[in-house]
Amino acid sequence: MSAAGDTRVHLDREHALKLLRQMKLIRRFEERSAELYGEQKIRGFLHLYIGEEANAVGVMQALTPEDAIVATYREHGHALARGLPATEVMAEMYGKASGSSRGRGGSMHIFDAGQRFYGGNAIVGGGLPLAVGLALADQMQQRNRVTCCFFGEGAAAEGEFHESLNLASLWKLPVLFVCENNRYAMGTALERSESETDFCRHATSYRIPAEAVDGMDVVAVESAARRAVQAIRNGGGPQFLENRTYRFRAHSMFDAELYREKAEVEMWKERCPIRRFHSWLIAAGVVHEVDVAALDRDIEGEVEAAVAFAEAAPWEPEADLLTDVMTPAATRGVA
Amino acid sequence: MSRRITYREAIREALQEALRRDPRVFLMGEDVGRYGGAYGCSKGLLTEFGEARIRDTPLSEAGFTGAGIGAALGGMRPIVEIMTVNFSLLALDQIVNTAATLRHMSGGQFSVPVVIRMATGAGRQLAAQHSHSFENWYAHVPGIKVVAPATVADARGMLWTALEDPDPVIIFEHATLYNDEGEIEDSGPLAQPLEGAAIRRAGSDVSLITYGGSLKKVLAAADELAREGIACEVIDLRSLRPLDDKTIAASVARTHRAVIVDEGWRSGSLAAEISARIMETAFFDLDWPVERVCSAEVPIPYPRHLEIAATPQVPNIIAAVKRALRR
Ligand SMILES: Cc1ncc(C[n+]2csc(CCOP(=O)(O)OP(=O)(O)O)c2C)c(N)n1
User: Which pTM value belongs to this model?
Assistant: First the structure.
């Protein structure tokens, strides 16, 4: 196991199983979510992270509980990898009162103050300035913490991306920008939305050190994240990762996928981060098939327990409709 | 000859016709091309008109909306599609500070004939960043026209008139309307005026004033009330800026009671503006204070029962009518 602050990945059996377990948990959780969407238990928009699991899991290894996370509407994986209980995340997707955001947000708006998990933002690019501000607060209060901001490559076309990179660099703020480049923003391919498709060049134009990493390789992601986080903790200011990855499923649950070839999807599925890591671990003799089978049973139990929890959880009473719009007088000044 | 089509098909036909009739017209927005539009309104148009006129844009609302305004200034007739009104807030600066002011700031030298379409409204459990109604924010601003087609005929007919208008026009399409079907009369003129409210149902007991996605709820409430012997007059505003004071005042003069149904939040709402105008133009005709049915003052919550509770519904409308009639 690598301690926080170590820039190398120590892939012993325990750590390998942890990485594999987290990726598999996200995968199973989301496959089950897709079924529940079909049963209309989960409604609204549901954006699956299937295929991209190595990114959240790899990056989270480099962060401590004191660090903050800002994510997008495609954030179930980030929430689970951060350690939010699957029960509460699932209850949130149901809209139940026991959910992470008391059901108010649903799939796109998972928050957890205790875990310093700041959502769940469904305005593309909206999370970047927020991350800059969280880091500014840390800097101004002399706290050595990192704010990690995940966003898709589509967000790089928004003004907020450029404004945020500039601010973070200008003020030397402790932000780790993680661009999850899955090549498509809804139906718009990268080449048709960016004049410069190398995101590291965007970052370095703002004098932010940047590294492109294979987002289908959890170990590569973890080690790049460890280097970047260490640089931030050492006072090096913001850092930028471009994680090259791919979403295997539709953008959300409604999407005819007219914008990409089936063969392309199949080619990327060959690089499935879970399958790849699994076979590598077996071949290297780090873990055995019996370990993986035990892991799968364990995950199945965890996901089914989450579903049972969400099913049994109460709905918020309609009488509470107007709660949580403003801070109640009794708690003013406390937060 | 009349035929039934969906609201979505009506918009697609209107776009197609505009693109065929005027080479200056082009459609621009996120995923309008290969994806076919977030709500499917432009499916197939890329094949017919090509990439230059069906332009997929990056996620850059301020940039491409501003570019639409600039292209309009430069002699084109752009139709800018913004996926939803929620994301249009990123382009608010360009619309309010540029499109709406250029004509005036330049002393009348420049007009900005841009058309900006966007979806609006709640009802699909999309939570607090995808469900709001900010029509009133735009209707507040001099220098632009704001319309809300609530019927298939208006969806089919208002785009053309908007494109002929020399000034910026914003078209709001309520997201729950796209699958609704309605009649189109092909024999008559398809173009519909931008201005002027329409009386969708005549009645003598109370005036129900609404627009956009709420019209169908108001008509359903009127149907139910009719069974109880209450005759509602239903006014579809169609245009949110300018407002048709005449039609509203004339209706209130006949019915002496008004109920405004508006999916925006009550505070600072269009309903508040209309209520003030009724006070100014028809105060002495009123037998009862103007009633308002608006959204509750809360960001729209995700769970179905809370979303329903937060937004105007048939039972609230019926209750408001009964209050106004002291029934
Ligand atoms: C400001 C804004 N514009 C448009 C949308 C609609 N939208 C939601 S996700 C998305 C694509 C974003 O792509 P990307 O940033 O690459 O992230 P990905 O979905 O691939 O994870 C779009 C266009 C939005 N939510 N916010």
Answer: 0.96
